[in-house]
Amino acid sequence: MKIGQVTGTVVSTIHLPIITGRRMLLVDLLDIAGEATGDYVIAIDTVDAGAGETVLILDEGTGARQVLDEPEAPIRAVVVGIVDEVSVGQ
Amino acid sequence: MKIGQVTGTVVSTIHLPIITGRRMLLVDLLDIAGEATGDYVIAIDTVDAGAGETVLILDEGTGARQVLDEPEAPIRAVVVGIVDEVSVGQ
Amino acid sequence: MKIGQVTGTVVSTIHLPIITGRRMLLVDLLDIAGEATGDYVIAIDTVDAGAGETVLILDEGTGARQVLDEPEAPIRAVVVGIVDEVSVGQ
Amino acid sequence: MKIGQVTGTVVSTIHLPIITGRRMLLVDLLDIAGEATGDYVIAIDTVDAGAGETVLILDEGTGARQVLDEPEAPIRAVVVGIVDEVSVGQ
Amino acid sequence: MKIGQVTGTVVSTIHLPIITGRRMLLVDLLDIAGEATGDYVIAIDTVDAGAGETVLILDEGTGARQVLDEPEAPIRAVVVGIVDEVSVGQ
Predict the structure, then answer these.
(1) D3 to B10: CB separation less than 8 angstroms, yes or no
(2) pTM
(3) Chain E interface disruption, residue of D5, D6, D7, D10, most E CBs within 10 A
(4) Total domain count, chain E
């Protein structure tokens, strides 16, 4: 998993049934020091994350399908948690 | 998923049955600010995307096969939607 | 697999059942000379690794699920061992 | 998929049964402008591609096994077509 | 697959049953010209490769499990052959 910061949402009028009604978040990936990298991923929201929040991202197809309980879903990345704290050296 | 911009099509006379009759798009990957990166992917079109359009790309084999409803298809990347808007900070 | 150094833990109050009760480690990936790269991965601990320890990381979904014996787990990376020695030239 | 240019072949006397008798091509990956990147992949040939030819490469294990019709093959990358033309802006 | 050069071995006293008794090689990935890149992978040996040898590496979980004939093995990378020659332009 990686840590990212939600920076916005993506709107697409032509999409797949599995995506209809779900929020697609634009998530900026953070480096180990918590700084934005400019690299990003479009991830399906599962925790109602808002802009600016730091989140945990799972970027693996089989696991993402299990999180959504949709074995046929054509997805790869999901936001699976909101990060409360990154404790260094513990 | 990633966001890209369609920049052209790829023509191949020697190919696989599953690809015959499908458009293969050359898609330039965009960065988080919407600028072209020069990195690209060849993706199967599913939404009749044209050159210059901003699209959503799914780059994962199992998911791509599900989108095309071809469980045996030797593909990995598909264009799954046209992006209408990327809302930052919402 | 890759070699990394544990630099901290990640705390998330909103998470998935499979992750509840497991330690999520922040692991800095090391280069071939054993130097920190700044690139990282969030991995589930399986060997009670502490901060500063050099570890082996498996970053592949199916394998990670097998290590945890959780065929449905939405995970991708696990710490699978503590590295005692990297012998060069043997 | 990606576009590459065949630059040579790889010879290995110790190898796996599935690879015996197949050509392993050294393929230089091209960027979106068709220039060599220096990044490469070793891919199994399926279209009798020669040195200098521009090819389509599928780099995904499950798909590669389907192309070769070898469900147990330990491979990941195959050359699946020869590129005739990349049309920009169409 | 990629080409690499074996530079050493990794010793871990805490590890998984599947890895017990197998050599874990530290393999420096080579670029298309055969030069070391500094990027590496830890791969399970299957061909008794020694330090300094140029090897073929398969870095894909399902394929790696098939090479070892261990459908449940939590691994991803294996050394599958020793490279005798890379012929450019043939």
Answers:
(1) yes
(2) 0.85
(3) D10
(4) 1
